Amino acid sequence: MNSRPARKITTAIVGVSAAALLLSACGGSTTTPTASSAGSAAGGSSAPASSVAGATGPQPAESGWCDAVKAQYPNLSGSVGVYSTIVSPEDTPYIEAYKDFTTCTGVTVNYEGSKEFEAQVGVRVASGNPPDLGIFPQPGLLSQIVNNTGAVKPLPDFVKTNAQKYFPSDWLNYGTVNGISFGIPNNADFKSLVWYSPKTFADKGYTVPTTWDELTALTDQIAATGEKPWCIGIASGEATGWQITDWLEEYVLRYAGPEVYDQWVSHDVKFADAPIADALAKVGALLKDPKYVNGGFGDVATIASTQFNDVSTPLLNGQCTFAREAANFDSNFKGKTIGPDGDINAFYFPPANDQFGTTVLGGGTFYAAFADRPEVQAFEYYLTTPEYANARAKAGSWISSNLGLQASSVESAVQQEALKTLQSTDTTFRFDASDLMPAPVGSDAEWKQFTAWITGQDDATTLANIDAAWPTS
Amino acid sequence: MTTAPVIPQTDVRVEEPVSSRQLKRQLRAQEAKTKLTSPWASGLAIVLAILWTIPTLGLFITSFRPVEDINTSGWWSIITNPGFTLTNYDQALNAQGGLGSFFLNTIVIVVPAVLIPIFLALLAAYAFAWIPFKGRNFLFVAVFALQVVPLQVALIPLQTIFVNFGLQNSFWPVWISHTIFGLPLAIFLLHNFMKEVPASIIEAARVDGAGHVKIFFVVLMPLLVPAIAAFGIFQFLWVWNDLLVATVFAPSPNLRPVTAAIADLSGTRGSSWELLSAGAFISIIVPLIVFFSLQRFFVRGLLAGSVKG
Amino acid sequence: MDFLLNPTSVGDKLISMVLAVVIFGVIMAVLLFAIDRPKVPNWVIVAAFLGPVAILLAVGLFYPAAGTVVRSFQVSVNAVGPDGGPVINPNTGQRLTELGFSFDNYTRVFTDPAFQKTLLNTVWWVVLVPVVSTLFGLIYAVLVDRTRFEKAAKALVFLPMAISMVGASIIWKFVYEYRQGGSPQIGLANQVLVWLGADPYQFIITQPWNTFFLIVVMIWINAGFAMTILSAAIKAVPDDIVEAAQIDGATGFKLFRRVTVPTIRPAVVVVLTTIAMGSLKAFDVVRTMTGGNYGTSIVANEFYTQSFRQGEGGKGIGAALAVVLFVIIIPVIVYNVRQMRLAEEVR
């Protein structure tokens, strides 16, 4: 019913200072290469990173795509359908961004959004009526459809070559199943943020924490006064529970590190194994302690019944101090000013130690095609171009991993900062693990089990149940 | 489930038309005999009716309150803290380029999806009730038992057939699937009504040389009107309020009914009570109007025809 | 005929709507007049009356149901290639699987604690919703029978029937809405608790009672239906039976128990059955209110999740759940069939 924010459009993060984001100064420069292969886990064998020649460094924003497409596909006509999880009113910027394609080729693009995408895309494929293209909210779902049905069309070479030119290889890997490229990265979602109210901070004399220790100290300081510092909601219709998967991912990334994280995604490290179990215990120490949660809502159990984006209210009125939400959370603050002196602001969720550099958790959605008509392939080509990325970013707050995306196309200075962070080699970026895992785990067992966990189920049972849901292949 | 002995049913007497005054007198006489009510009972009944209505009333009032009020105080405080706004309805109605076209789709879906199963079920119920043939009971039980099939299992097989026939861009899949899902109950109910008609009447008609068609139209149809109305209303409510069938069989915006449009209404927002409440009432309003305007006929029909299992 | 297959304008849609009805009307008329001659063999008549329905039901319900039963005994196994890994189609990326006969789906459904809970919840739904709704409907029908406010009272109780299950779920979600103690409640149920001096309660989250609070919603929807049908049945109790009983000295409650209840029993059976079927298949309530979380899932909801969200692996489990659903309802069917038989004999 409800959508995961992964599918939402990344929006402005105002006031996250570059210094906080690019923490390399703080802990000696650790440069972890980004191009590690967290390939599609559900595929069983993830593609070796070397199989995809990845682009490096920013690319020019002009690719002259229109002439290239016309040369490759003369006489284009007809229409292309896009099926997606993004419903009105958030679909408008997409429809805007497709107009350039229609202007060049004369092919109309029909956009169709539905909250039932995850279930319906399977139904439509099974009944022989798939959409031309889908915007997949999770790579795990894409790989499930590929593995089960074979209905997704691989990227044609013409498109793939261009994608390799403009996207980092690890982002292309997320859309690769069984060594074949299917997905074109759409948006990039910046999740490692903590939202707070500058007004509350000013009133109570808090300073914005820039390290893990400062954040912990401030949390304890607030709890000591009897207030509950954190507020969190995990209710999200069918997807209830996904918020905790993000928490766990942040902790695994911060305490166990990116390498263990990648092994966890491919299930070489199991949920019940020590690094993951420890991380969950640490998450539990915060989220299951009534001292720390649930500001503005009540006891720990209210976490399960609170809508993930309803925490905006207690944040604003000072009933809670911190909420860990993605950058797109600002859509819940319509009419409020965002910034260090505004009504609401966000700071970077700091790394736990100096070991792994600036760790950022992110997510993203992927285009994949079910048809191979020339107009569909031409449209896919357009989606890989910097022109699409820039047009889409201008139409509404959105950033992507496209190397041709110019900071000038992005709305706010800080979102440009987020873009810079994503494109920077100093960042240890990791994709949302549950989105990469097979759908029975990443978009079912994890959600359900963590929902049970927050309402009282113990760690061991929870982790064992998730492991049990992993497909036996 | 009671296990009381089955008392032989007497047949419904198909009487000569009586004058309304006579009817009233009869009713009053009967009333005196079977009335169980007392002032206490009446009081209890009123309390229950109010209890039954409060949840709906609460959301109804909520749909007219400003967002801030909704999230900070209960709707019952409307008396002490009045606030009235049409913003919620405005937002809901203008979502997705206006709900008008979706309302049209709903109407286009509902009319055939109610009428077609009635046509077909009448034929089938007649055959089950009044045409003796081998395996009749078995077949009837089979149709009855098909009610247990959850429609979810039929979604993909049916849609596959529709796609093979190239119907996926039309309303046919929705009409036909609603027809299929409504048939078992329709046949069951209409068959029970038909069985109520005394066999002697049918026999008399047969002796006069009437064929099946004549019996069907001349003898049975007038008696069946209330039953058809009853099923028609249920099927109407079911089709109008359905979300699942519409989601699968009318996926494109061009065919989407209002329920599906409203389901996507709150966008990616959380519990926006202001939108949810307004949206809920927009989709409820037509069934309510239909129900209240037809209720008279419905109840009167049931009284005239009498429902017996 | 393009507007019939792809209607776009308002006119197209309306015309296709009218045509659809006309087409079926014509089919019906042609069938009837074709057989309305002397000397048509009986089987032809039966075929004409039952044919369209039989085809639709066979294709639309029986065939999928049979397929589901078959699928419930199959598990999808990955084919193993020469290197011991999965076999991948190099062109599409599809993993080759084979369907093998197995009882594994049922084993999982009956041993997995989560599924056991789901089954148990379903039983509660199928028992409580029909029984309580019917009882309430019957009592209410008697209470308001021939009172001055009968029409209005009935209309109010029937009103939830006209509301979609999704709408009803939204209404009740709002009733159950929780705010922590000390802050103003916006949900009526918790406000009542606060007025009574108790702490607010998480109606939807707190197990094991949350399932019953969901069942309340379904009862709220169905009671009006039960009341309407039973009320009509009570009014149709023939006078002579009542008179005969009164001559025997039965009055008031005795009369009701001895005469009214047995007479309307067939109606009670119909109501119970219809509501039982409805609550078995009603997944909208669970889906809208909890999404099947907090241990409130029922088979219909779990079937949808497994079949449409879990890829190949879930299809077998979903099918097994659907079969369990058939089995749960068999007693109701058998009871009804026996009732029908009895009624036949009486005739």
Automatic annotation (TrEMBL), chain A:
Region (Disordered), start-end ranges: 33-58
Keyword terms: Signal, Transport
SUPFAM superfamilies in the record: Periplasmic binding protein-like II
The keyword ATP-binding belongs to this UniProt entry's keyword annotation: no
Source domain of life: Bacteria
The UniProt record lists the keyword Ion transport: no
Alphabetized Gene3D superfamilies for the sequence: Periplasmic binding protein-like II
InterPro entries per the UniProt record, alphabetical: Bact_solute-bd_prot1
Residues spanning the signal sequence: 1-27
Family: Belongs to the bacterial solute-binding protein 1 family.
PANTHER family the UniProt entry points to: ARABINOSE-BINDING PROTEIN-RELATED, OSMOPROTECTIVE COMPOUNDS-BINDING PROTEIN GGTB
Name of the protein described by the UniProt record: Carbohydrate ABC transporter substrate-binding protein
UniProtKB/TrEMBL annotation, chain B:
GO CC field: plasma membrane
Record field: transmembrane: 40-61, 102-131, 138-162, 174-194, 215-240, 275-294
Domain named ABC transmembrane type-1: residues: 103-294
Key words of the record: Cell membrane, Membrane, Transmembrane, Transmembrane helix, Transport
Main location: membrane
Pfam family, one: BPD_transp_1
PROSITE patterns on file: ABC_TM1
InterPro entries: MetI-like, MetI-like_sf
Gene3D superfamilies: MetI-like
Compartments (UniProt record): Cell membrane
Membrane topology, record value: Multi-pass membrane protein
Gene Ontology biological process: transmembrane transport
Residue runs in coiled coils: none
Family: Belongs to the binding-protein-dependent transport system permease family.
Name assigned to this protein: Carbohydrate ABC transporter permease
Organism expressing this protein natively: Nakamurella flavida
UniProtKB/TrEMBL annotation, chain C:
Keyword Transmembrane: yes
Listed PROSITE patterns: ABC_TM1
Location within or outside the cell: Cell membrane
GO terms of biological process kind: transmembrane transport
InterPro entries, sorted: ABC_transporter_permease, MetI-like, MetI-like_sf
Keywords associated with the record: Cell membrane, Membrane, Transmembrane, Transmembrane helix, Transport
Transmembrane segments: 14-35, 42-63, 123-143, 155-175, 212-234, 264-283, 317-337
Database matches in Pfam families: BPD_transp_1 (PF00528)
A GO CC term assigned to this protein in UniProt: plasma membrane
Membrane topology designation: Multi-pass membrane protein
Principal location: membrane
Keyword Electron transport: no
Residue ranges of every copy of the ABC transmembrane type-1 domain listed in the record: 119-336
PANTHER family: ABC TRANSPORTER PERMEASE PROTEIN, OSMOPROTECTIVE COMPOUNDS UPTAKE PERMEASE PROTEIN GGTC
Entry's family note: Belongs to the binding-protein-dependent transport system permease family.
Protein name: Sugar ABC transporter permease
Protein source organism: Nakamurella flavida
Lineage: Bacteria, Bacillati, Actinomycetota, Actinomycetes, Nakamurellales
